[in-house]
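P.,

For your records, the input lines for the assembly:
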Amino acid sequence: MVWEAAIGGSAVDAPAASAAVVAAEGVEMTYPGAASGAPATPVLRGVDLAVAAGECVALTGPSGGGKTTLLNLLGGMDRPTRGRVLLAGQDTARLDDAALTRLRRRAVGFVFQFFHLLPALTAMENIALPLELAGELSAADIAARSRQALALVGMEEYADRYPGRLSGGQRQRVALARALAPRPQLILADEPTGNLDRQSAQQVMALLRDLSRAQGAAVVLATHSAEAAVFASRVLPLRDGRLAAATAPPQDAAGTP
Amino acid sequence: MASGLAVALGIAVVVGIRLANRAATQSFRQTDRALAGRADLLVRGPTPISASRLAALNALGGEATMLPYIHRIAFDPRAQDTLELYGADLLAQPPPAAAPAIAAAASAFAVRGGSHPERRAGGGAGAPGPPPRPRAKRDARRRRAGARARSSSVAGGRGPTVAPRASFAAGNRRRGMASAPALLLAAAYARRHGYRCGQILHLVIGARRLRFRIAALLPARGLARAQAGHIGVLDIGALARLLAGPGGHEAFDGLAIRLAPGVSTAAVIARLRPLIPADDVIQPPAARERQAGKMLAAFHANLLALSFVSLLVGGFLIYNAMSLAVLRRREAIAVVRALGAQASAVRRALLAEAALLASAGAVAGLGLGWLFARATVGLLSATVNNLYAVSHPLPPRLTPADIAWALGLAWAVALAAAWGPAREASAITPAAALRPEEPELAFRARQRRWAVLCLGLAAVALAAAWLPAPYGLPVNGYLSAMAAVFAAALAAPLLLRFVLPPARRWLLRRRRPRLALAAASLLSAQRRVAVLVAALATAIAMVVGVAAMVGSFRQTVRVWLGETLQAQVYIRPLAWSRRHPAAISPAMVRRAVQTPGARRAVFYYSAPFLFHHQPVVLATRWSPQEGPRRALLGGLHFLQAPAAGAARRACAANPAGMGRTSSAAAPLPPAQPLLLVSEPFARRFQLWRGARVRLLTPRGPLAARIAGVFYDYSSSQGILRVDAATYRRWFGPPPVTNIALYTASGVTPARLRRRVAVRLARAGGAFWVHDRASLRRQAIAVFDQTFRITDALELIALIVAILGVANTLWAVALERRRELAVLRFLGATPPQVRGLLLAEAAWIGVFAVFLGAVLGAVLAAILIDVVNVQSFGWTIQVHPPWAYLAAALALLFAATAAAGWPPARWAARADPLRAVAAE
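Structure tokens returned:
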């Protein structure tokens, strides 16, 4: 595969599954009441989770079940009310904003349902953006890395297109490339196929699984879609803020994964 | 909100200037109007009308009633204030020309004066008595009879010197109550300075200190309301005698004529014309008012034009606000359209919204404008005082017409600004709502059209600058400036498009990701950024253009003063105005010239004159030590030098670049009058060197060729300068209105000034004595005061623009909150997000300052070479104040960048989770 050659590694080189990239230990999250005196809303209740490098975990469950909240906690975008989150071995609650941002920049890639590409930037520039923000690579390296990422998702010919001129599937592929370009240890994807047609959804999920494996990154995705969950190695239903026992990923008609 | 505030400030400025303009000039128009009263014609000449000349007017018989009047400026040393004194026949019944106010004054005299304790007691020392009632009744009966018989007040061979009949002074003398003439003083003035009835008031008229007795206080009606109550009224006979002095000839400033019913104005003019000197003018009062209006029209028009810049900037901001509103509501508009709303309904709704915004802005602006007018009317009035005529501002008043004007203006600007976005909104279809980037793409697609239009407008700006000024107003200059502003506005998106991409690449290479990302963000929102840049650039251009013009003008005047003021000490009567110059008595002239330490004297005469029925200044200059021609040329610097010889040779050596200079007489034949005109005169009448002109003099028309055109910055009306010999031949001996003294060796100017001041004061004279340095300082102070109002206008335009930047950056930050949240997800720290928005503001500042500086240079050129020349006829040498401009631009850039701070801070603190969750 092109991407395997480009990244310079393969699934075989992936780190051992036992090494947890991210772990949640007794995590609880409660949002204060909207109005003064209103009762607080518990969203997560005692969640324990560990995701190893190269593993793809799907969080499923109804809307409001806490999937997005858990993703945000795992990605260091928020801090739990109780319990702790270890991201790349560091307790996110103990890091200040700047340190957490640096950790996130290095270790986490995000993929969103609505792509969230910056409309002012071309596909190539969107991919280069996190690398530029990190400020660790030279301009030439950033360009090279961005081009590689674009090639991985099969979008080389759209490098100079603005997001407004791309289809939904193409946008998500660019978003995926943007998440992968800094070579994070963890990719968090919130309903990555929620805005795509079936065919695009399958393409994007396949890419996500394959590329993360090739990079040795762990993937946690929140999804409603059983078709997306098919691509996960573990499916964790999240109901009323609690994780249920893991289930085997459903088999789709084509027999993937 | 900020757009509404911008409209309010814009309207406030234009309304404020309108009210202040009116208040500052209405005062002397009101005096003209009140003085003319119900008169149908006014007769006046460049020199006073002697009492003896009036007898000739008897020929009119019963066709007209006429009344002479006197108008003088008096200085009140105790109050350090000026007062306008009017001499009129107070008891004329019906007052044929005096305003109803004068009649009211007379009645007020009877009522209020009568209630004075001293008068009730039969009159204390000096207390005026009431006008002799039986005599007044008799006079009234006579006049009624006279009116029936259509006889004029000059009938009976007594001439129009009817004033003594009603003279309070005469009445006083008869009673032996006072030696000081009775004065009716405006109650407002008395109140302001604590004067009471019966009190002696010392006033300076010209250079003479005179005593008056306050006989009564005039209530604030008619004439007494004019000049904000700086009014005193005297019996004309008393004032004429006072001004003439012992043994002098009584004279009047003019005549007000009221025609009998059915008498044709043209017929009376035709009959009067041969009876009055050729240089006297007969015209209806309205024509005199028009002249006063015309005199100030260019000054007012320029201020009003400057005030419109704020409104124009406000218009840009409304356009931006409406564009943002349309962008935000695309989906809602699409839904409404899908539900069956017509495109025109959407357009109307948005235009109505803009009109509502404008109405709110106009209402707030009216109040602010009134406050602004109150704050600036003093400045404006001071400028009118310095440049044109004495004016005491009236409190600015907001009339229904002003309210209608402000509302109309606000609606016009708002609707014009909202038209484009409203049209765009009406074209939104449900399908288009799914493509939010469409307006931006459409805007970019139209850039070729913008470029063509930009070039077209630049061509219009260039062409308009070459067109002449219709009616003496720099309309084409404004058109040129306006075209330049819109050309710059259209250049803004082109500038963004051509500069930002390479700049972004360069910044990336230089590892400046925030600046690069900011450049990219601006590029993706070219439309609103371009409008913002255009608005800010317009305000900056105004600052640059006006500062460059004022700085150049200031330096030009400094150089001119340095070269023109050659003597060391300057003397003129204390109570003086351009409209009413006062002569210095021969005794005082002698005293001044004989001051120890004075080596040489130069005399000036300068007074209003009518050329082609237009007010100009007639002047001459002479010196006992020089021939009349040599003296006339002294201190002048020529745009067109008289003939060849010394003048031209001197020109080559003139280092200041003021043009040709001459210190020696031009080789003209001795019998030929030497006539020089100032540059404003030449431009105003389009009469240059070699042109033949005809001056109406008391001894008939004087024909002469213009020998040269000199630079002058003291009068925008224009100066005619004739040699003293010619003046004497055609006008009579010139009175001295100003004296310039040269010091003897070893005497400092300050010492000579002190000596002169003491000598003249000891002789009872009231003079204004300055040495060269203090005169220059004062002239520059007057100059600076004149332009202080423009500083205020610039500042407000800038505040409006910076408000717009802050507002738009807020809107942009709000609109992009999700995008900024994503940056946080991608690893941007809060300082990086803040830095991004600040970088965007800085980019906007860079573009606005650059475009503003370029446009400002263009506006400066238009102001200096077109508007100024067409308005005032002055050539201004270009001397931009570089240091000031550099500091101002740096400050403006900093202010623009700072305007980005609040939204940047907000964006950095915003919760990214919430922003993304709000999807």
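Two observations worth noting. DSSP finds 31 helices and 20 strands in chain B. Chain B touches chain A at residues 435, 437, 441, 508-509, 511, 513, 516-517, 520-525, 818-819, 822-830, 832, 912-913, 916-917, 919 (CB under 8 Å).

Regards
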